Amino acid sequence: MINGSFFDGTYAKAKHAGWLWILGQNYALIKQDPQLTHIALYNTKNQQIQFVDYQNFTPSRSNEVIEFQSGPIVVENSQVAKPYIAKSLNGSAPYTRSLLAVTDNRTKYFITVRKPIRLDDLANYLLSLEIFAGKRLDVLNLDGGPSVALYSRELINLRYNDTAQLPILLGAR
Prior knowledge:
This protein is mainly beta. It is 9% helix and 39% strand. The chain has helices spanning 82-87, 119-128; strands spanning 2-3, 7-8, 15-16, 20-22, 25-28, 38-43, 48-53, 65-70, 73-76, 79-80, 95-103, 107-117, 137-144, 169-170. The longest helix is centred in the last third of the chain and has 10 residues, at 119-128. The protein is globular and about 40 Å long. The chain starts with a strand and ends with a strand. Residues 2-158 form the Phosphodiester glycosidase domain. GO terms for molecular function: hydrolase activity, acting on glycosyl bonds.
């Protein structure tokens, strides 16, 4: 599991910041915020994921999708997303980070960066990795700073800040 995205309020009374649609239920409306640039759309039927600029987004209202707002987008179509990073409130400052990466709209990666880094430097680093060579890469920032956390039941050495109280989590099995 990884911290899911930005939230409003306190840890004790947190709510998701921005659009949140889960399998036919709407939990939060779209929020205009320079951080929350994109909607992650996950189709549970074909298991594809894509990131759409929230200004061009039309809610699906489907029972087969999960949609949530986060950002900024860091890499879009294998290019550093400089305009989104530049508008971000914390994109040019070094922070620990958590991100969701997708190659060719199908293979998903949770990324936790434990060393503080700027988003543009992180984007360039990710694009240099052999694992992403020759593939379309899209990367969405989920959060940064003290909310960055990763929990793995089986890979204990990967855990990071796993005792943090976080209101929003993403998980895979």
